[in-house]
Amino acid sequence: MRKLYVLLLQRWNLIVNLTYRLLKIKPKVKGSLDTLDYILKHCCSVSRYGDGELLLMNGWYIGFQKRDSLLQQRLKEIIGSSVPNHIVCLPCVFEGIGTFEQSAGLFWEEHLKHSLRQWCSYANLHKQYYDTQMTRFYMDIKDKAQSSAVLSKLKQIWQDREVVFVEGEKSRMGFNNDLFANAISIQRILCPAENAFSSYEKILATVREYVAKDKLVLIALGPTATVLAYDLSISGYQAIDLGHLDIEYEWFKRGATEKCAIDGKYVNEVNQREIPDMTDEVFLSQVLATVK
């Protein structure tokens, strides 16, 4: 009886999602270049949502973040929020998947079959959203010429800025590459590599204690970054959730055709989690604080 119920529920969900697509009920999401133009013009903060954040809002967990009822509540709050100098990004997939490489396109096509209704239930359908994929500018994108254009605009965000990374202790943004070479300076607040939201209040307090509001805060901290960018924006910072940008840049530099491990960096998507301790003196000199 239970199997029949589950099957009927799945069929019903597919029918509802198809109805949403036929009626063109969907969030409004601008593309990557428009998103970056907006950030550059308004110097705003950015919270990003992907399929992982959707799972967490639905009460599930993902590989590096356990289920957390407060995180679930905050993600639901922020996705529909409207505060000055802050934007929310969603996957730019609701108008079509023609910009993606085949495997990524198939993933998003299957995702929308099951999840479009959920996105619509959480999002404000009257709100303008922006593109989560601005930081996924290379591997999944069909037009690599656009990848270079997106990267160029991304680098303008931290051009001649004093930057503070708030990152997982094994993320190591910008280490051994030149992604942030045009920043004036780089400092770091290191946080737990997994289940960072369990230390959220400590992370937020540490940023407020150590970071001046004229500095640019760049965050690589999974779903915790989505919440942190929002709260820091309210506190007067410009804070941007960059997600996997550093890893994406590593793949871009290599001309990689599939996702691969990067020496010395945590890469969740290829299950590279055991990373040697950091010994580089320059990196260690950039660390302002470590949150456990």
Compute the number of helices.
Answer: 10
Radius of gyration over C-alpha positions, nearest whole angstrom: 19 Å
Give helix % range: 40-55%
Could you give the order of strands across the largest sheet? 8-7-5-6-9
Number of separate structural domains: 1
In one word, what is the shape? Answer: globular
Based on secondary structure, the structural category is: alpha/beta
Q: Mean pLDDT across all residues, rounded?
A: 93
Order of helices and strands: HEHEHHEHEHEEHEHEHHE
Q: How would you sum up the major sheet?
A: 5 strands, parallel
C-alpha termini separation:
47 Å
Q: How big a fraction of the residues is strand?
A: 5-15%
General description of the model:
The protein is of the alpha/beta class and 292 residues long. It has one domain. The mean pLDDT is 93. The chain starts with a helix and ends with a strand. It is globular and about 55 Å long. Helix 5 links the parallel strand 3 and strand 4.
Short description:
With 292 residues, the chain is α/β, with parallel strands linked by helices. It has helices at residues 2-22, 32-42, 51-57, 69-79, 102-122, 144-157, 200-210, 223-234, 245-254, 281-285; strands spanning 28-29, 45-48, 86-90, 128-131, 162-168, 185-191, 216-220, 238-241, 287-290. 42% of the residues lie in helices and 14% in strands.
